[in-house]
Amino acid sequence: MEPDLPSRDPRDRDHRELRSSEWYTGDVRNAYIHRAWMRRGVPSSAFQGRPQIAVANTASDLTPCNAHLGEVAQSVKNGILEAGGIPLELPVVSLGETQVRPTAMLWRNMAAMATEEMLRANPVDGVVLLGGCDKTIPSLLMAAGSVDLPAVVVPGGPMLTGTFRGQPLGCGTDVWRLSEEVRAGTLSEDDFLRSESAMIRSKGHCNTMGTASTMGLVAEALGVVVPGLAGTPAPDSRLLEGAHNSGLLAVELVRQDRRPSTFLTKASFHNAIVALAAIGGSTNAVVHLLAIAGRLGIDLTVDDFERIGADVPLLVNLQPAGRYLMDDLYRAGGFQAVLREVRDLLDPSALTVTGRPLVEHLEDARIWDADVITSRETPLLTHAGIAVLRGNLAPRGAIIKPAAASPHLLQHRGRAVVFDTIEDFRARIDDPDLEVDENSVLVLRGCGPKGYPGMPEVSNMPLPQKLLERGVRDMVRICDGRMSGTAYGTVVLHVTPEAAAGGPLALVQTGDWISLDVTARRLDVELSPEELASRTPNEATLAGFAAPTRGWEKLYVDHVMQADTGVDLDFLVGSSGSKVSRESH
Ligand code: FES
Ligand code: MG
Predict the structure, then answer these.
(1) Which of 62, 68, 97, 326 for mutating ligand 1's site (highest number of atoms within 8 Å of CB)?
(2) What separation in angstroms does the CA of 34 have from each of 51, 62, 89?
(3) Count of CB atoms within 10 A of residue 168's CB?
(4) Which structural domain, as residue segments, surrounds residue 416?
(5) Does residue 282 belong to any structural domain of this protein?
(6) 26 band by pLDDT with thresholds 50, 70 and 90
(7) At what angle do helices 104-121 and 284-296 cross, to 10 degrees?
(8) E strand or H helix at 153, and its extent?
(9) DSSP structural state of residue 382
(10) In principle, which of 221, 365, 407, 529 could form an S-S bond with 340, CB 3.0–4.6 Å?
(11) Per-chain residues with Cβ under 5 A from ion ligand 2
(12) Within 13 A of 488's CA, how many CA atoms are on the CB side?
C-alpha cells in the first residue's frame, strides 16, 4: 500500500543511467526478483532513479579500533537519505591490527579483493568507505580504485588520550617504550601492567601518528575525504556531522559520476607524499600508497617518496617522532592547518571528492597551538621525508624514517648479528653470551611479503637486555619486514628484494661489516661482488621461509609482489571497473 507516493511505475526505463538500474529497472523477471527481495517495507520509489549507496563498514568487535563505526554508519545513512539516495550497509572484511595473526598485512589484499568484488557484484551506484585501524582504509581504497565507483572515505578517527600517573599514553609507542624500560630494569613489571587499562581511553584508533592516523590524514590529502574531517577524534560529535555530510556527498558523487579515476591523479599522490612527510607519518604509508596507485594505474614509485618528500619539513610534534597525540593535533588546528603551512609544496591541480582542488579548502585553517603544529618558519626538522636507501644489500631499495631515528646512527658502520627468523631472534637476543655491542647491526630476515608471509611489523627488534641495562636505547637494525607506525629507532625497513625472494639479505653472515649512510642514501654489506656471488643461503635461512601449501597463504606467496611496488598481488594490480558481464538468474 503506497497511496501517497509518486506514481512512478517500477518498470519505467527513465533511469537507465544509474548502474543499479541494470538490476532494478524493467519488467523482466529478473528485475522483479531484484526488487522483490529488497522490498521488505521499502516503497517501490526506492528503485526509481535513487542512487543506491553502499556503506562499506569495517566495524567489528574483533577490530576494536573500528567497533564504533556502526554509529558513524547511521549518520552516513541519514545523509544519504536526506540527499535522496538509498543507504545499504555492507559489512566488509575487517582487520584488527593488534589481534590478527600472523600479521594484518597478510590479509590486506584479501580484504581489498573481497570488498572490490562485493561492490561490483551488488546493485550499488556509489560507496561510503568506513575505516580506521591500520589496514582498513588502505584495503577500502584499493577496492574503490579497482571497482571505480564514486567513493568517499570516512576515517573513524583516533581515540582520546589516556593518562597513566599523570602522563599521557601514546598507543603503541608507549608500549614499546615501557616494555623496554621493564627489560632495562627501570620500570617494574607491576607498574607496566597497571598502565594496561589506561592505554585505550575511548573508542577510536591509536592516538599516535601510527598507520591508522597516517592513512586517515593521507586519504584526505589524496582528496577522498570530506576536507577537514580526517583526524576528528572518534568520540567527537563533529565526526558524526562529517559522516552525515559524507553521506550527502556520496549521492552527489553518483549524480556527477565523480569516480576515483576522474580525480585521483599523480598530483593527488604528490599531495599525499607531502602530507606524509609534514606529519611525520608511518612508513607503512609507502606500501599502501604504492598499492592504491597500482589499482588506479598511476605510475608511482618508491623514488617518488624521496623526490617529493625529502625536502618537506616536519611540522607535527606527535609521537612516535615527537611528543603529542592526535587529540592535540585536532585541538591545535587539525590536519588542514598543517597542509596550509605547506600549501606551496602541494600540487594545486589535484582535485578532491568535492570537485574542488585540495588547496582551495585550506583558506580558513589556523594553528592554535604552535607547540603541536609548528609554523613553516620553525619546523621540527627541515627534511622530514622517508629516505630511500640503495646498495648491495637492497638493490631495489629499503626505507628509513630519519625523523624517528637517532641522529648519531644515521651514518654508521658495524658488524652484523644475523637472525634467520623472529623466533631465532627471540631465543637468542637476551643471551648474555651473544656477541653484540652498541655498534653492532642487528639483521633480521625472512620477514618479507613471501618469507613470513605477509611482511609483519617486526623490524623494530627489541634491543639486547644487557645493552639496555647499560643505557643503550637505539641500535641500527635492518629487516625485510615492516615496522609499526607507532615505533621508532634507527630501523632500515622493507629491504627489497626480501631474503625469501632472492635478495642479498639472505647472504649476510654474522660478523660481516655493514655500512649505513642515510645522507648518501646507501646501505651496503662490505663484500666484493665476487664474494657475494659465491655465497648461497644456509639451511637455517631457507628453513625460515614460509612454504604454505593451500588456501590464502599459498595464493598470497605465489602472487605477492615486493615492497617497492606496494606488496599487492600481481593479478590485483589495475582496475576492472564496475561492469558485471552476466545476469545471476
Ligand atoms: Fe588499530 Fe592501532 S591497533 S589503529
Ligand atoms: Mg600496525
Answers:
(1) 97
(2) 15, 32, 17
(3) 18
(4) 388-547
(5) yes
(6) confident
(7) 30
(8) strand 151-155
(9) S
(10) 365
(11) 97, 134, 211, 484
(12) 25
CA distance 69 to 131: 8
What is the value of ipTM here, to two decimals? 0.92
The structure's pTM equals 0.96
* Separation of CA 162 and ligand 2 centre (Å): 19
End-to-end Cα spacing for the chain: 28
Residues 239 and 193 in one domain: no
Residue nearest to atom 1 of ligand 1 (CA): 133
Answer positive or negative: Cα dihedral of 185, 190, 194, 196: positive
Question: Measured in angstroms, how far is the CA atom of residue 169 from the centroid of ligand 1?
Answer: 14
User: What number does the ligand 1 atom closest to the CA of 97 have?
Assistant: 3
Q: What distance in Å separates the CA atoms of residue 356 and residue 343, rounded to the nearest whole number? A: 15
**All three cell numbers of 262:** 576522474
Distance 515 CA to ligand 1 centre (A): 34
Pair 161, 207: CB distance under 8 Å: yes
- What distance in Å separates the CA atoms of residue 340 and residue 286, rounded to the nearest whole number? 23
The alpha carbon of 92 and the centre of ligand 1 are apart by a number of angstroms equal to 18
Q: Are residues 261 and 396 in the same domain?
A: no
CA of residue 92 to ligand 2 center, whole Å: 19
What is the total count of domains within the chain? Answer: 3
How many other C-beta atoms are found inside a 10 Å radius of the C-beta of residue 98? Answer: 17
Q: With contact defined as beta carbons under 8 Å apart, do 295 and 573 qualify?
A: yes
> 270 and 315: one domain?
yes
The tens digit of pLDDT for each residue in 343-356 reads 999 999 999 999 99
Ligand 1, CB within 6 Å, residue ranges = 65, 97-98, 133-134, 171, 205-206, 210, 212
Q: Which atom of ligand 1 is nearest to the CA of 63?
A: 1
